[in-house]
Amino acid sequence: MDIMMPIMDGFGATKAIRKTPEISYIPIIIVTALSSIEDKVNSFVYGADDYMNKPINYSLLKLRIKSLIRMKSSIDEIILRAGIGENLQNLLCAPLLDVEIANSKILLVDDSELIHSIYDKLERKNIIVDICKNPDQAVQKCLKNNYSLIIINSEIVDCNAIDIAVKIRNQVKLKHIPILMIIDEYDEDTLIKNLEIGINDYFITPGEIRELIVKSIAQVKKFHYIQNLKSTYLKDANIDELTQVYNRRYLEIYFKSLIKQLQNNEKISIICIIDIDNFKQLNDTWGHITGDKILKSIASILKNNIRSSDFIARIGGEEFIIILHHLTKLEAKSVIEKLSKNILETKFSDYSKIKTVKCTISAGIADINPEDTLAEAINRADKNLYKAKSSGKNTVII
Questions:
Q1: pLDDT over threshold 60, residue 90
Q2: Are 193 and 122 found together in one domain?
Q3: First-to-last CA distance in the chain?
Q4: Which of 49, 72, 297, 341 is the most buried (most CB within 10 A)?
Q5: What is the layout of strands, in order, in the sheet containing 179-184?
């Protein structure tokens, strides 16, 4: 969106979108010839996700769009999973601009003179700032605290800031926390590398500290907005009590909403049915307490190693359904094979924690067609699961 437009300027349009619950979470990039710091700061104050000057750097724009769509996809999945359909107004009752962020915590990984300016200005906004001058301690600090944003200075002494960001992203508990990278002067290669590994935003120095502050606040608001949606609308009734993944009841709700998207050509989706090999024998040998423990552990491995935009449910006994989006069957097979390898390499303990148990999984994969019922999609995947079981187990068939 440009700033200079007839009838309503870009600031007014951005604010109007952010104040409308049904569309308040749609990403907005301001693209303009105006370059004053006031225009840039106001863009973020009114709710823009990014600000780019003309002439447009299309490589950078493409990466920013990819990053912002990833964020929007997380919200789309919450809406889809909530099964709300026409009740969208009720779900998105708190516009993005109105999200409360007082007492949120930010980690600042930095050892430069910028620390004091950032700390003071964020503290005035009632945001708690922890400072980490030793990058080796950053991941552990993140794991021990509930941060809403991590700011990393790429010029921190004796450290590769990208490595810190990658380590944070590789932690299951931290993969959804936004990262803002401070980059010294404009370096397109460094910026592109950061966006490719999944940072959420950046601030280029030397620059007005006000821009960094409004960008930080915007990231914190987005984080809380998504967390609020998750905690409020993903009800316990939809969760399998033992494994804490979705249950069969919710799979049916989710699938109906998914089919509508497929019919509108909004998604391409793959269904995978996963079965723990020899689970009855495992239960008979080790007991149901150990069996339940293994079910919980395998569910956790599956859940934590797929994207947040994908879907997992336990459909009974030792069977799980995973639905993967925007992948071919071959790509989906690769994802499930990695999960299978992860499970094979895990040493599960029995209830006494003295002995270890080895487990494998078999899986069948199939396309989901726009005219499918849930039973039809599961049946196709189940036929491939049967082939996997018949061919010696511990395998994935498409």
A1: no
A2: yes
A3: 43
A4: 49
A5: 128-132, 105-109, 149-153, 179-184, 201-205
Residue 313 shares a structural domain with residue 217? no
- The answer to whether residues 257 and 295 belong to one domain is yes
pLDDT tens column, 277-290: 999 998 888 888 88
Residues 265 and 170 in one domain: no
- Enumerate the H helices of the chain as residue ranges: 10-18, 37-45, 58-82, 88-91, 114-123, 138-144, 161-169, 188-196, 209-233, 248-263, 279-286, 288-304, 329-344, 374-390
16-22 LR contacts (CB < 8 Å, sep 24+)? 17/47, 18/46, 18/47, 18/95, 18/96, 18/97, 19/95, 19/97, 20/95, 21/88, 21/89, 21/92, 21/93, 21/94, 21/95, 22/88, 22/89, 22/92
- The CATH number assigned to the domain holding 33 equals 3.40.50.2300
Q: Is 162 within a domain?
A: yes
What CATH number did the domain enclosing 332 receive? Answer: 3.30.70.270
Domains identified in the chain, total number: 2
What pLDDT is attached to residue 13? 92
Taking only the tens place, the pLDDT of each residue in 169-197 is 888 888 889 999 998 777 777 888 888 88
Residue for token pair 């726009």: 370
Range of the domain at 310: 248-391
Q: Are residues 224 and 268 in the same domain?
A: no
Measured CA to CA, the distance from residue 25 to residue 9 in angstroms comes to 19
Which of the given ranges, 104-108, 212-216, 319-323, has the highest pLDDT on average? 319-323
Asked whether residue 199 carries a pLDDT value surpassing 60, the answer given is yes
The DSSP output letter for 152 is E
With beta carbons less than 8 A apart as the criterion, state whether 245 and 299 touch.
yes
Cis amide bond preceding 370, omega within 30: no
Could you please report the per-residue DSSP string of 302-340? Answer: HHHTS-TTSEEEEEETTEEEEEEES--HHHHHHHHHHHH
